[in-house]
Amino acid sequence: MSFWKTKKLHEMTTGEWESICDGCGKCCLHKLEDEDTGDIFFTSVVCNLIDLKTCRCSRYSERTRLVPECLDLKQHDFAEFNWLPATCAYRLLSDGKELPGWHPLVSGSAGSVNEAGVSISSYAMKESQINDLEDHIIEWLD
């Protein structure tokens, strides 16, 4: 049986944990929070460390040192994952849901995320290319 079906997130090895990431890049999009409501709004603007072809961090092991706002998901309470997109594998597993058919662990192909249109590669832009984050707020249909 697949490890993600038998283990809780906190029980996974580092390798298992890392393989849960589908490589969509959505968690690396800049977010804005409404101070009054606490609502989180995603933008189409991504950290400059992201490789937009692979949707992976180019400096992954150093990311939290180089970008202090970068979150290491493994260091957070899984109940806090509600800010992640509904398609995020960590959020899905935390919520007791199945991984989708396009997830690389299910499909057997890293390219399935792009083929399914789930990755940010087709629309994201680097933070160095924009002036105002509020001009780049996006909405996803869950």
UniProtKB/TrEMBL annotation:
Protein name (Swiss-Prot/TrEMBL): UPF0260 protein METHB2_130044
Superkingdom of the organism of origin: Bacteria
HAMAP family given in the database record: UPF0260
Record InterPro entries: Puta_zinc/iron-chelating_dom, UCP006173
Entry's family note: Belongs to the UPF0260 family.
